[in-house]
Amino acid sequence: MRVSDLTDSRAATNALLGTARESRWSPRAVARFLGQAADRSVRQAARRPWALAEVTVLHCLFLALTRTRRDRAGVAVSWTFTVLHLGLLERRDHLVPADVLTLIRGNLPATAVGASRFSGVLAIASDVADGRVARRQAAVSPFGDYADTFADAAFWTWLTLRHETSRTVRAAAIAAWAAPVVTVTAIAVGRGTMPERPRPELLRPAAAMQGIVALRHLLRR
Fold first, then answer.
1. Number of domains forming the structure of the chain
2. pTM of this prediction?
């Protein structure tokens, strides 16, 4: 069976990582890994026309709220990343309310709301809400986990680099958010398999820095 035909996203990713690791991540192996991953992503998105339509309509709404060409480019990147990860929905063929909340958070920087003093507080509220909604509706999925990670990265990196005035806070925030990503990536490359989600202890510094940045942004004149 081809990797593109595997319905389990973790099994497909492990198969791709394992093949690349056996080839010691040579340039040819990396190119093959990226090509096969892209091929599977496109095929999986095509098998979920309802989810693809929902994602497209939602991002069209985001485009209507943008202010600049850079904002529109950001929405286009969000649409591309979202579509290429629709395979992580696995047995679902549509988005759930928790997924929509997550995508809204990731696109806040493209709207006027993102520049408001309350955007950091809204981002934290949506982060808490989407997880609770997903668990209450029994709709937790790898797509939701990865979308949550990308949304946090997009929003908090933008808010920190664009509106945080303290170099110390900026450096501490970026380091706290980069640590889990670097750790998970290093384990995946080294072992040739996807690791489990980072332990809460590893994520607490990132959550703490989100609160600090949000509070400073709220109180800033």
1. 2
2. 0.89
